[in-house]
Write a structure and sequence with these properties.
179 residues; 8 strands; 30% helix; three-stranded antiparallel sheet; five-stranded mixed sheet; 2 helices; alpha+beta
């Protein structure tokens, strides 16, 4: 039985191959109506230098998702790092999709590796405050159980933090109703 092997096409001129290699959120979950800080690493794994290229960001998906921004990435040698700030106004579980060379302006070795997706959660400020209070209460109980009298001193500090959280929440709520 004869097996046919298909030979890859040889590249006669050096061309780049651009990829989004990593995306990391500075904060997770993301509070509603804030800007998400996203650290993005881009690479050129091809054999020709690219000085700069556009990177587009979408909420959820490229075809039917919400367009968020286009940023220009400047390459030093064969890599680029950028920090982008994207407005988040839709509660729930979503994704952010980064697409390098979104308009196919550069011929590349492969056009199939130009995007990367990261999962995100956008939550209300109220739910963040409720989670923080719940975690504080759990920590108070565990501290008392473990440390007895010394735990009570730590709990006083935790109560102080809890009061500060409540004050911040009240301040935020007052600002919402004033608008």
């Amino acid at each position: 039985e004869e097996i046919e092997l298909e030979m890859p096409e040889l590249i006669s001129t050096p061309i780049p191959d651009l990829i989004v290699s990593e995306m990391v959120l500075a904060e997770y979950p993301i509070p509603l109506n804030t800007e998400a800080e996203l650290h993005v690493n881009l690479e050129n794994v091809g054999i020709a230098y690219v000085e700069e290229i556009e990177v587009a960001y979408y909420l959820d998906e490229i075809s039917s998702g919400s367009f968020l921004a286009v940023e220009v990435a400047h390459f030093e040698e064969f890599s680029s790092e950028q920090t982008v700030f994207l407005s988040m106004n839709e509660l729930g579980d979503h994704t952010i999709v980064a697409v390098i060379d979104p308009y196919d302006s550069i011929t590349e070795i492969s056009e199939d590796n130009n995007d990367l997706t990261v999962e995100i959660e956008i939550v209300s400020i109220d739910s963040l405050a409720a989670d923080a209070k719940s975690q504080t209460d759990t920590l108070k109980d565990e501290t008392t159980n473990l440390l007895g009298c010394r735990g009570k001193m730590i709990i006083r500090h935790l109560n102080f933090i809890d009061r500060k959280l409540t004050a911040a929440e009240n301040y935020f709520d007052a600002g919402k109703t004033a608008k």
